[in-house]
Amino acid sequence: MIETAPSVVVGAAAAGGVLVAVSGYWVLSRRRGRSHESTAESSSDGDADSGSSRLPFFERADGSGARTIDPEILLPIDGDDEHTLRLATVACGLKHRYGDEPLTLLSTGGERDRSSITDRIAERGIAAHTAVRTESVEAGDVTAGIVRAAPEPNTDLVMTEWDLEADGATYGETADEVVARTPLPIYLFRLARQPSELDRLRLVIPRHVDHHEGFYEAVYNLKQLSARLELPVTVYVFEPNVDHYRTLFDLVEIDVRAEFRSVGSWDELESTLETRADPADLLVTLAVREDEIGWDPELRTVADRFEGLPPRSLALCFLRADEPAYEDQFLRTN
Fold first, then answer.
1. C-alpha to C-alpha distance for 248 and 263, rounded to whole angstroms
2. What are the pLDDT digits (tens) for 226-242?
3. Which of 12, 213, 285, 332 could pair with 324 in a Cys bridge, judged by C-beta atoms 3.0 to 4.6 Å apart?
4. What fold does the segment set 1-30+67-185 form as a domain?
């Protein structure tokens, strides 16, 4: 159901007079007793692309003591087009099935637009287990709105559209500025089809990114997405020792079916994806900001490299910066 509450003024941006107002639209639902956790199977041989490898969800009783790590996600929206709804679906997929933190939609439109998007989310059943609220940004300054709204209240990550065709911008004008102005994880997505129609998650881990303080959080979130969408995972690493990455992958909570492949270069990766990937795959690359551990100048070119490959759905996930202790919560406790 959708509940309406009084609007609360969050604040105005110092430079541009940008006003962020919390609108009281919430999409609420009853949590059901299902677990997305499953048994891991890893292989470094072959590319088991069959959809038959999808993992089931198992029933579990509420109060079982399972840990809940539920990110609060900020999703900037512009209208209520189909891609916005796909982004909202993936954002909900990143969240824990039993979590209580909301998905916040940062809208550049008026109340009619906010009402329209929440109505369509409710009609589609996108947020069946997630509270959704909207905030509005006046003056159309979405970048300032994101940067200002992100710490309020304790946003864990920002998810936005990846504009692969932006002139003069590496990742899109808004994305470039947000990446530069906040240390939060920034997940950029371009979804060519419904998330329910995706067949496999292909994850690219550039060299040395595993030494970055945000690595385990990103792995956790992507395993969560894999489990929620029931997608098998293929992980590509730029090291011959894939067992090292398999070990790191398995240190993170949530078990998913994953295989690991070694590639010697970005050119080899591109060639491998050309022959092995499918249009229904989601290709995700972990990224870091310039001058951080794991930075590779090739990250500036991934949009151009990947745009013509079979996977039509792409994502670039910038890791959290400057919070080493934050990682501990994503590692197994037993």
1. 18
2. 999 999 999 999 999 99
3. 213
4. Rossmann fold (3.40.50)
